[in-house]
Structures are given as structure tokens and as C-alpha cells.
């Protein structure tokens, strides 16, 4: 989701949302503001998107106090000071992929005692009558010994509030070189829960227990299996179509036009996944550096949409990212076609009343 910044950050709040850049909005998502890493799900009969907030100007009445552990963590080494502003997650719901309602602070560090900053890249699932939100916190590096990594929070509603389920990270250290960020939770047809994650050029897959609160051994006995494909950087995502597993990821530099989405296929959720090709990249007429995506299938159809972030034309700060949504198609051989970014966005797509509202 985030990596070391090679250039200084620009305070991007000075770009008003009414400027010409916002004409690039897809289905009104860009007009929601500065967000990145969006994961789309279908919950309670609606589309839900859980993104990372990248705004440097949280409301003045937010986060008035931090507990002693959070204060200590925030006063220590932080890769970049702007990460201190990432202390909560918003969500967005829609009946049709066009009209969106914002749900503010569905996860807040006031409800996660060990998380102090760098709250990034959530992934969500509905299971056992509850909603679970996995997230990265504290941006731990290989040499760090303080608490941080991937946590899990739970709520009775998809719009939160989500409350820490463990009191500590679910994954709190590096395994196989993978920084514990960018989680993606995936339930397979047989009920197995797989968990993909990893930054700094490495990706792991693990299995979660039925209550989602621990990592359990896979069939071969391993706990964390590295599945890093060629050119992988971060942002893993998994879909399944016609019995084939499509493992997708982001590659390139998240702060510039080299960023994009690639994928591989396998007959197993644990790979191996050989890189097939890039399906989403910069279009100089539309936007730069699209990536860290998710995808959704309209139930009962073979219609797919990809949700991602991108840099509007004319912006220069690496954190100046907005959400977008476009159609995603497969060819006759089952390969994902190159995604065409659009300015105009989608027509409304209502969910069928036949869909289970959970």
C-alpha cells in the first residue's frame, strides 16, 4: 500500500474538489475525495467500498487523545509524518455503483488500543453473522520490535463501528520477507478462509481459523506460504471464475505512472501463480498510476467490475489518489482483458432483489 517515499510529499489538500481534475470522476467515486486502496464487497444488499484515507487534514475534533501506548508509538520513528494522520477508515455504500453514501470512521484507533497510525488497506468479510474488517497499522519495518502489522476488528453492521477483536495484531512480524500490510481475505467454495497479504515485494498466503482470529496450518503444514509472482510489489487480490483462481496484484512504484495491476492464474488458491500480464496501467489521456484494486462479480452473471485508485492528471503528490471504477472483461480463453479506464464512468447497476442481503 505504502512504501518508502523517494520524493517529498506535497500537501495536496490545496487542490479543490471542484477543479478540472474532478471531471475524471468515475461513477462519482473520485468526487468522494482523496482515497486509495479500495476494496469492494456486496453486503446487506448493497455495494460497499472500504478504502484507505489519504487526506492530510482530518477534522479538528477527531482523535483528541491517544492512550499511553499510542502516544509512545507516535513519538517514535515514523517513515513519514503524514502517516500519523492516518488514524481511521471510512466506508462507502451504494445501491447501484453510482450514488454513494459515506460512512465516516467505521474503524478508528480509539477502538484499537495497539494501533497508533498508518491505518491502511482494509479487507472485509461477512461470516458467522458478523462483519470483520482486517487492516494494516503502524507500518512496521523489518528492524522494528514494537507492535504493528495486520489487525482484525468486528462489527454487527457493515458500516461499523468496528472494534478490535484480538487486542493485538493478527500478524505482527515479517514472514518470508513480506511486510504485514495489504491484507485480502477470501472464502473459497469449500468454506476455507485464505488470507493474502504482503508489501515490500513479497506476498504470503495463509489460512485463517473459522473464527478468523488466528492463522492455522495449511494442508502441507505450512503457516505462511510465499507465492510472490514476478514483478509483485503489493496489493494482492483473489477472485475465482469458472473454477480458475485469478491472483492479482499491483506492481511498479505506487507514487508514479509506473504503477499498475497484473495477474496470474492457477487451479489452486495457494498457487503457484505465474505472471500472465498487466491489465491496468497509465493512460496519459485519463489518469496516471492506477492500481491497488479490487474486483466484484454481479451475482448470477458473468459481469465484473474493477475498483482501484489513480492519480488525476495534473497532480504531482504521490498521495493524491482518487477512487475509480470500470468494467473488467474476460476473453474466450478465460484471460482478463486489458481494462480501459474511462472518464464518464458507469451506468447504474442495481443489485437483484433475489440476492441474499447478507
TrEMBL record:
Residues flagged as site, Important for catalytic activity, responsible for pKa modulation of the active site Glu and correct orientation of both the proton donor and substrate: 182
Pfam families: Glyco_hydro_43
Keyword Ribonucleoprotein: no
Gene3D superfamilies: Glycosyl hydrolase domain, family 43
Record's keyword terms, sorted: Carbohydrate metabolism, Glycosidase, Hydrolase, Polysaccharide degradation, Signal, Xylan degradation
A GO biological process held by the record: xylan catabolic process
Signal peptide: 1-25
Gene Ontology MF, one: hydrolase activity, hydrolyzing O-glycosyl compounds
SUPFAM superfamilies: Arabinanase/levansucrase/invertase (SSF75005)
UniProt record similarity statement: Belongs to the glycosyl hydrolase 43 family.
Name of the protein this chain belongs to: Beta-xylosidase
Native species: Granulicella mallensis
Lineage: Bacteria, Pseudomonadati, Acidobacteriota, Terriglobia, Terriglobales
Amino acid at each position: 500500500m505504502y512504501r518508502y517515499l523517494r520524493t517529498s510529499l506535497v500537501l495536496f489538500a490545496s487542490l479543490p474538489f471542484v477543479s478540472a481534475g474532478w471531471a475524471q470522476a468515475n461513477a462519482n467515486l473520485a468526487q468522494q475525495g482523496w482515497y486509495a486502496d479500495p476494496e469492494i464487497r456486496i453486503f446487506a444488499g448493497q455495494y460497499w467500498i472500504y478504502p484507505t484515507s489519504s487526506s492530510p487534514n482530518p477534522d479538528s475534533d477527531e482523535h483528541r487523545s491517544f492512550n499511553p501506548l499510542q502516544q509512545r508509538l507516535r513519538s517514535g520513528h515514523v517513515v513519514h509524518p503524514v502517516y500519523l494522520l492516518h488514524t481511521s477508515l471510512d466506508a462507502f455504500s451504494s445501491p447501484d455503483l453510482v450514488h454513494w453514501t459515506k460512512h465516516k470512521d467505521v474503524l478508528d484507533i480509539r477502538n484499537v488500543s495497539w494501533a497508533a497510525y498508518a491505518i491502511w488497506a482494509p479487507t472485509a468479510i461477512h461470516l458467522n453473522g458478523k462483519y470483520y474488517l482486517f487492516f494494516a497499522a503502524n507500518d512496521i519495518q523489518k528492524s522494528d520490535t514494537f507492535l504493528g502489522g495486520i489487525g482484525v476488528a468486528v462489527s454487527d453492521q457493515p458500516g461499523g463501528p468496528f472494534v478490535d477483536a484480538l487486542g493485538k495484531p493478527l500478524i505482527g512480524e515479517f514472514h518470508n520477507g513480506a511486510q504485514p500490510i495489504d491484507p485480502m481475505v477470501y472464502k473459497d467454495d469449500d468454506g476455507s478462509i485464505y488470507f493474502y497479504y504482503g508489501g515490500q515485494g513479497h506476498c504470503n498466503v495463509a489460512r485463517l481459523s473459522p473464527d478468523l482470529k488466528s492463522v492455522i496450518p495449511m494442508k502441507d503444514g505450512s503457516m505462511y506460504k510465499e507465492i510472490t509472482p514476478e514483478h509483485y510489489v503489493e496489493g494482492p487480490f483473489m477472485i475465482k471464475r469458472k473454477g480458475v483462481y485469478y491472483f492479482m496484484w499491483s506492481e511498479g512504484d505506487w507514487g508514479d505512472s509506473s504503477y499498475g495491476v497484473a495477474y496470474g492464474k492457477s487451479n489452486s488458491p495457494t498457487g503457484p501463480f505465474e505472471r500472465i500480464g498487466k491489465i491496468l496501467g497509465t493512460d496519459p489521456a485519463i489518469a496516471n498510476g492506477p492500481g491497488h484494486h479490487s474486483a466484484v462479480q454481479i451475482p448470477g452473471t458473468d459481469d465484473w467490475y474493477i475498483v482501484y485508485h489513480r492519480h488525476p492528471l495534473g497532480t504531482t503528490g504521490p498521495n493524491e489518489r482518487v477512487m475509480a471504477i470500470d468494467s473488467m472483461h474476460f476473453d474466450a480463453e478465460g484471460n482478463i482483458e486489458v481494462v480501459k479506464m474511462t472518464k464518464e464512468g458507469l451506468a447504474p447497476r442495481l443489485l437483484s432483489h433475489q440476492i441474499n442481503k447478507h
